[in-house]
Design goal:
The chain is of the alpha/beta class. The chain is 46% helix and 10% strand. It is built from 18 helices and eight strands. The chain has a five-stranded parallel beta sheet with strand order 5-6-4-7-8, sandwiched between helices. It has a three-stranded antiparallel beta sheet with strand order 1-2-3, with no helix packed on it. A hairpin with a 4-residue loop joins strand 2 and strand 3. The protein starts with 9 loop residues before the first strand and ends in an 11-residue tail after the last helix. The relative contact order is 0.16. InterPro entries: P-loop_NTPase (IPR027417), Sulfotransferase_dom (IPR000863). Pfam families: Sulfotransfer_1. Keywords: Transferase. Belongs to the sulfotransferase 1 family.
Length: 340
């Protein structure tokens, strides 16, 4: 399509950055920087970048957006159930990953990786079908979805369709960056596609140098924060979900225009409670486990608590982190509900 243009510059990362990333990540990718904020992404993203940016939207689309490990999965399940009239049996029968299209996930599956995973699953028809879906461009999968569509993305608002909020509802969830960094570190150890072998301190250095996928973290959040007053945007903090789940569920229900009784609210909060959520196979990416794409040593849903970062940061790292946060929040009124 001739009008399918992408307005941003895309260029490879520096050779020195590649070497630094490859010291700790055995999953070998070519990385790029995108746009004026220099978002750090896998090179394959550019194959679908213009299609995602220009994707036709539908008025009943619902997007759940976030920087990774900010409470995305929790928010997805909450949103899907409210929008689907609390159909728990359907939620249990269909994995969350099949209920949402993850727009840019296919960037992880280069031809080499795809062939390796296919060989590992040779003869397993069900697994190969899942792999075909995961490796298809997100824009293509979204076009094939029936309405209402549920779409997940970690892309910042500037890389999504510019008319997104004109007709489409977006829920953006943010989380204390220190807890995000810890959770993201574990996720990169879990995903064999990333295969992170370094320690947390090394990961933290890459995180604040904007050398992990979807970074820079603060630019990502600020883009959504600036749009938080738009009637089609709901900006949530993970800490709000943690501290007062019923009140946050009610906010989401109101945003989606859904009525919920007090009994239904109690039942939904029980379903979303950490213990139940951790033991819910529908949200734990079990389909990636069956493909052999996840390590057995880590779990997708980990401990769900706020403030767990304290177990990972020494005094010097904590000071460095506070300075980094202060510098990035200097010209914004964004504040995290709790840094505890």
């Amino acid at each position: 399509m001739s009008s399918n243009k992408f307005p941003y510059d895309i260029h490879p990362i520096e050779e020195s950055e590649t070497q630094e990333v490859n010291k700790n990540f055995l999953g070998r990718y070519d990385y790029i920087r995108v746009g004026p904020k220099n978002y750090f992404l896998i090179n394959n993203y550019k194959n679908d970048a213009a299609n995602i940016y220009n994707m036709p939207l539908r008025p009943d689309d619902i997007f759940v957006a976030s920087f990774p490990r900010s409470g995305t999965t929790w928010t997805q399940e909450l949103v899907w159930l409210l929008a689907s009239d609390l159909d728990y049996s359907k939620a249990a029968a269909i994995p969350l990953q099949a209920r949402y299209t993850f727009l840019e996930f296919s960037m992880y599956l280069s031809k080499e990786i795809l062939n390796a995973v296919k060989n590992e699953n040779a003869g397993k028809e069900d697994q190969l079908k899942i792999l075909d879906i995961l490796s298809a461009p997100g824009s293509q999968l979204a076009a094939q979805m029936s309405s209402p569509r549920f779409l997940k993305t970690h892309l910042p608002m500037s890389l999504l369709p510019p008319t997104l909020l004109d007709s489409t509802k977006v829920l953006y969830v943010a989380r204390n960056p220190l807890d995000v960094a810890v959770s993201y570190y574990h996720l990169n150890k879990l995903y064999k596609l990333s295969n992170y072998i370094g320690d947390f301190k090394s990961f933290w250095e890459l995180f604040i140098k904007n050398m992990v996928n979807w970074a820079p973290y603060f630019e990502h959040l600020k883009e959504a924060w600036q749009l938080r007053h738009h009637p089609n945007m709901l900006f949530l903090f993970y800490e709000e979900l943690s501290k007062d789940l019923p009140a946050t569920v009610q906010r989401v229900a109101d945003f989606l225009g859904k009525k919920i009784t007090s009994d239904q609210l109690t039942q939904l909060c029980s379903h979303l409670s950490f213990e139940n959520f951790k033991n819910n196979p529908s949200v734990n990416q079990d389909e990636l486990k069956t493909l052999g794409m996840l390590s057995e040593k880590e779990s997708f849903i980990r401990n769900g608590k706020s403030g767990g970062w304290r177990d990972y940061f020494d005094e010097d790292m904590t000071r460095e982190a506070q300075l980094w946060i202060d510098n990035n929040l200097q010209n914004t009124d964004m504040r995290f509900p709790s840094m505890q």
